């Protein structure tokens, strides 16, 4: 029995050696492949979800950028229109400036011409003899004013004669014309 058991154990050792040299690496490879596939598939799903989120984010950014591009394009068109209007105004103002410069030049030449005429007139007047002025005729004597009456019945009569107010010492002054007694009647 010892032989059988010794033979069995030698076969067992030999089989175990085969398993050791072939089976363990194969088993390890199968396990590694299974574990790697499991990890890889879970990583792949995570990466796919991450890529999908990135794609959605990028699509959102593209939409935002497209809206911004449309807004900028619209604003650019408005600015171009405004620039065209301003260019037309600029050209119109250039024409007005040219007209005004022409008018200024015409007015300056007119001023020069008038200054020349003024200088000529001054020279002629300085050279011309000054005529002697004849004396003005004496004014005619004014007619004598009618003499005021020496008595007025009331202030109405004094005013009608042009003598009001009548002072003390004047012809026609009377105490009855001076109410407050200050020496001036019909005030």
UniProtKB/TrEMBL annotation:
Residues 122-150, 163-187 are annotated as: Disordered. It comes from Leucobacter denitrificans. This is Excalibur calcium-binding domain-containing protein. SUPFAM superfamilies: PspA lactotransferrin-binding region (SSF161270). Residues 173-187 have a biased composition (Basic and acidic residues). Residues 132-146 have a biased composition (Pro residues). Residues 151-187 form the Excalibur calcium-binding domain. InterPro entries: Excalibur_Ca-bd_domain (IPR008613).
């Amino acid at each position: 029995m010892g032989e059988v058991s010794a033979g069995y154990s030698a076969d067992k050792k030999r089989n175990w050696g085969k398993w050791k040299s072939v089976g363990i690496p194969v088993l390890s490879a199968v396990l590694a492949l299974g574990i790697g596939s499991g990890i890889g598939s879970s990583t792949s799903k995570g990466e796919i979800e991450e890529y999908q989120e990135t794609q959605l984010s990028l699509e959102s950014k593209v939409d935002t950028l497209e809206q911004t591009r449309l807004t900028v394009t619209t604003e650019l068109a408005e600015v171009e229109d405004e620039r065209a209007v301003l260019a037309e105004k600029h050209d119109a103002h250039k024409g007005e400036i040219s007209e005004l410069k022409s008018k200024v030049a015409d007015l300056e030449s007119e001023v020069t011409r008038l200054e020349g005429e003024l200088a000529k007139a001054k020279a002629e007047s300085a050279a011309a003899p000054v005529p002697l002025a004849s004396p003005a005729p004496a004014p005619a004597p004014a007619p004598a004013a009618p003499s005021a009456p020496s008595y007025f019945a009331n202030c109405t009569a004094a005013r009608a004669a042009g003598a009001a107010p009548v002072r003390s010492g004047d012809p026609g002054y009377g105490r009855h014309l001076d109410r407050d007694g200050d020496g001036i009647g019909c005030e």
